[in-house]
Amino acid sequence: MNVLFLCTGNSCRSLISEALFNHLAPAGWRAISAGSQPTGKLNERALALLAAKGIPTAGYYSKSWADLPVTPDIVVTVCASAAGETCPAYLGPVLRTHWGVDDPSHVAGTDEQVSAAFERAYAILRARIEAFLALPLDTLKTERTALKAELDRIGHLEP
Hints:
alpha/beta; 4 strands; Rossmann fold; globular
């Protein structure tokens, strides 16, 4: 099962989601990330945060949703539409859900404030991915309506 974490720039939140999911997921589940308007480079603070958490990022890069190596089964948008971001709408026969997370790379302030924003985004994404992976995945693979309901519920979880 392939899960696409999608946002606009594919440099921070979607990268964190991809790396976390792949670090925690069982065999047969794989995440990829992409952006509708990729920045072309990964956010250095996001990479440093993942390294500090012991989560590998080798081979990850900022990519367009037009260049996906596989067709996703599930698409999770992680942009924060409430903050005025335009969330990309992935078209195609996939299960879609939205897990809005504020972009920590847009936080201005002291180093401590910016670091806290990255930690918060990481904590939210980790809590949601762990909740996703705690679902009875083998059963839900065939029950798309139930899986969609669970993924939508998870999109509102806070750590």
